């Protein structure tokens, strides 16, 4: 195989041990349920099974004096009689005096705990254990949380958030008593909803379980145990029941025996080699097709496993700073709790229902809110499944409108070169004929009219001559044009070109004069990306029809919308006509509910300031690329930064270079571009820009 990218492939597929493969998180249904004893017993049982394992308490509260080791002392006692090995002793990473929730105890001492900080400390500690431990097998850590799953670290983050970024299997510890079934169920559901695996349940028996308790209590305790055993077996979760014992050597031995069913499951997980990545890539190659690729010579793919904030986590544990927002969509970053909460709540109510003859609150509220945000004059929302479908709908609306008003000869569309409107047939017909590869589909595609790309740069004074071609095309063909369709201000996938908003004002006037409708495709530009909520605002133009999508759901689900004026709707429907379109999943309630939550977030979170900060950071960060060999242009608008090269770039090579740098940037054609989530912190934005700069300084974009 003469694959120039091999040196990077090997790096990217190297199996790695990650903290997620080596950690187990122990949490409880509440405080004082016996987590520390359960953790200690598990530590002993796992060591007996031959594993190199140490227990760690990331946050301990209620520690009187600095010398006290809190729970770590208990872990140590449980294995006191065993050979010490080379591992450093059990440790507490943060301790606070007040016996309260970590957020409060830490605040009392002027400390603000964060999930990112805790994760870093845990990772560092685990690496030090790995360094001290010399065996072949990696060293595992048992991480005991403070209190239950929703115990907060600060005003926004809690224990579940930490568990989710660690992505380790979870052990739930519960105290057997009245209420245990309910508490256990709630905890298991919360863990599952975060996409985490429960590796076992440890049920702690009260001290008087078998002797002094009255008959009713005994019946409850016994039923709890058998009920849980049966239900958990169905879910493949092992159960261990731990008696109350005197905590001496014999006692710890009894507990280690009792916890064995859970310890075995944990040991099996810890022993599984981390080969997920290679296996999945191989299987992917056999059965899947990726965007714009060959099945014979596919571009390499990386396995994404989890995401959070502005980060993507690969299956081999590497965490990448995201520079793409998953193709314009994930403006709030990934796994935003508000979006996920909206999704779950709607899933619980009604995931989907046909839109023919039925309506629902998520669709109505979304349409109302969208119309509030869109340029004045747009009045009707037609929900569509994807951007391409929204464009098809827009084209059909324009055709039906012209028929409705008796202009049946208007059957063609006029559009600038360099545009991109999607990959379905109608949408493809108005894409740039060269980059859209019209030659492949020439017989099938309707033949549209093309005009020159708006050549007046965004950042230069407007040149009225840039409208000459539009004027001429409309003069020649105006009578047969149903509509002009284009992306306002930013041409996206057709070249990441930014042009002057005055062009749109002039074009709107020309359309009016020619009797053609004006369609704005804001699928990429919508929802703040270019620095205004919609790019149309920069020109002060309301189009007759507008398409939006991509960031509409904040990157969670596919949803788009075609919005038109009352005049267009009336033109279509007058004389008893109907609009002829209706996708099966039209107005999907899940997607509408998430979109609604995303639009609310946009309004609350001051997207304008954030996009301005992105623009500043991108300008500063990408400026050094200008003038370097092989660079044709550097341009920035809002949250979009573009380095245009003189030749097409080696995508696979650059991609691998960027992944090694810990950033996710996917170039195409002659474009290396960034459009990070709005929530990207300045230091991460700098990292993205530096990675682009380094690639260009090292000439990776030129190396074929
Ligand atoms: C992405 C895009 C589309 C197509 O949207 P899909 O959801 O991918 O079908 C259409 N127009 C523009 C401007 C786009 O950026």
Short description:
With 704 residues, the chain is α/β, with parallel strands linked by helices. Bound molecules: pyridoxal-5'-phosphate.
Give the secondary structure arrangement, pairings included.
Elements: H1 6-13, H2 19-22, E1 23-28, H3 35-48, E2 53-61, H4 71-78, E3 91-96, H5 102-108, H6 115-132, E4 140-148, H7 159-166, E5 170-175, H8 180-193, E6 198-204, H9 215-235, E7 239-242, H10 249-258, H11 260-271, H12 276-287, E8 304-308, E9 311-314, E10 319-322, H13 325-328, H14 337-349, H15 361-373, E11 378-384, H16 387-404, E12 412-416, H17 425-429, H18 438-441, E13 449-451, H19 468-477, E14 481-486, E15 490-491, E16 497-498, H20 502-514, E17 517-521, H21 536-539, E18 545-548, E19 560-565, H22 566-573, H23 589-604, H24 607-622, E20 631-637, E21 640-645, H25 651-660, E22 663-664, E23 671-674, H26 682-697
Parallel strand pairs: 1-4, 1-5, 2-3, 2-4, 5-6, 6-7, 10-22, 12-13, 12-14, 14-17, 17-18
Antiparallel strand pairs: 8-9, 9-10, 11-19, 15-16, 18-19, 20-21, 21-23
Helix pairs in contact: 1-25, 3-4, 3-10, 6-7, 14-23, 15-23, 16-22, 19-20, 24-26
CATH class of the largest domain: Alpha Beta
SSE class: alpha/beta
From the 3D coordinates, which CATH architecture of the largest domain would you assign?
A: 3-Layer(aba) Sandwich
Rg from alpha-carbon coordinates: 30 Å
Count of domains: 3
The molecules bound to the chains, other than polymers, are: pyridoxal-5'-phosphate
Distance between the termini: 15 Å
Count of runs of 4 or more consecutive helical residues? 26
Within the largest sheet, what's the order of strands? 3-2-4-1-5-6-7
CATH superfamily of the largest domain: Type I PLP-dependent aspartate aminotransferase-like (Major domain)
Please mark out the parts with pLDDT under 50 across 5 or more consecutive residues, or reply none.
Answer: 1-15
Helix content: 40-55%
The CATH topology of the largest domain is what? Aspartate Aminotransferase, domain 2
Which band does the percent of strand residues land in?
15-25%
- Main sheet attributes: strand count, strand direction, barrel closure: 7 strands, parallel
Give the overall silhouette: elongated
How many beta-strand segments? 23
Mean pLDDT: 94
